[in-house]
Amino acid sequence: MRPFENPVIPQRETLLAVENVSLAFGGVKALTDVSFDIRKGEIRAIIGPNGAGKTSMLNCINGFYHPTHGSITFKGEKRRRMRPSAAARGGIARTFQNVALFKGMSTLDNIMTGRSLKMHKGFFWQMLRYGPALKEEAGHRRVVEDIIDFLEIQHIRRTPVGKLPYGLQKRVELGRALAMEPELLLLDEPMAGMNLEEKEDMSRFILDVNQHFGTTIALIEHDMGVVMDLSDRVVVLEYGRKIADGTPQEVKRDEKVVAAYLGVAH
Ligand SMILES: Nc1ncnc2c1ncn2[C@@H]1O[C@H](COP(=O)(O)OP(=O)(O)OP(=O)(O)O)[C@@H](O)[C@H]1O
Questions:
Q1: Domains of the chain, each with CATH number or no CATH
Q2: ABC transporter domain location, by residue (predicted)?
Q3: How far apart are CA 45 and CA 233, in angstroms?
Q4: Spatial distance between the Cα atoms of 42 and 58, rounded to a whole number of angstroms
Q5: Would you state the pLDDT for residue 120?
Q6: Alpha helices, H only, the chain
Q7: Distance from the CA of 53 to the center of ligand 1, in angstroms?
Q8: Considering only Cβ atoms within 10 Å of each terminal Cβ, which end of the chain, N or C, has fewer?
Q9: Cα angle 27, 258, 22; round to 5
């Protein structure tokens, strides 16, 4: 049993609340009146068949898209519109369905880019390698080296990420998101394209991030085994609408969920 499910632990506070969110692209309704919450410290899965609106929902949460209707409240602050940079500064980091890294740069430098929002001495001073900027950079490097140790990728710290196998690129992307020291980490299909061993490694890192750093995690995942093993609660979308919400066990038994997945290959 995941610690979160222990009945003696009182219900955790809400970190993020999605309320009646709708999103349309012209005539296409990507999301219709979706509400759910993410509690502090939990792993929350967002699942559903292809085109259900999962990525659109993550994009609303981190400010890439602005809901046509509804609102998102993060740490008690309700926002109709939020820019991705403001979301990142506020503590929301994400990874993408297709790895989005600087392919020619090393693992170390890619993860270092995750620290840019934390840098007080601006780019200009960093370029001049001005004293205080150098001292600050050393501090950021220590954080990045800790993340590299944590993710067990010391052996590839100097390798350009474009030369790495896909599974390791996904791990570096996780490292870059962790470098932001997020309160809420959004993972868009973190296991996509991975073999079984890579999936097991990634699952272990996701659980470790959640348990050791207390990071709240929302993840989109198609592999049901992974969803059932990792998540505390699951929200299910179909055609842009929420059709179920509950523990993995509850959701698995839900007739609407079973029907939504019948005949859908995942
Ligand atoms: N930028 C966009 N412009 C137009 N339509 C879009 C855009 N982004 C998403 N959509 C549409 O919104 C709907 C939801 O798409 P979304 O990518 O959020 O689904 P998903 O559940 O993440 O799918 P998948 O599992 O295939 O990644 C789809 O009909 C999609 O075609």
A1: 1-91+182-266 (3.40.50.300), 103-181 (no CATH)
A2: 16-264
A3: 6
A4: 16
A5: 56
A6: 54-61, 84-90, 107-113, 123-128, 131-150, 166-178, 196-213, 224-230, 248-253, 255-261
A7: 6
A8: N
A9: 25
In this structure, which residue's CA is closest to atom 3 in ligand 1? 25
**What is the distance in A from the centroid of ligand 1 to the CA of 125?**
41
244 contacts 238 by C-beta, under 8 angstroms: no
Strand spans (E) along 40-100: 43-47, 69-74, 77-79, 92-95
Question: 11 CB under 6 A from ligand 1?
Answer: no
Nearest CA to ligand 1 atom 26: 50
Q: Quote the DSSP letter at residue 182.
A: -
Quote the pLDDT of residue 1: 42
Q: What region, left, alpha or beta, does residue 214 occupy, with left being phi > 0 and alpha being psi -120 to 50 degrees? A: left
User: For residue 32, which amino acid is it?
Assistant: T
Atom 1, ligand 1: which residue's CA is nearest? 25
| CA proximity to 88, closest of 121, 115, 110 | 115
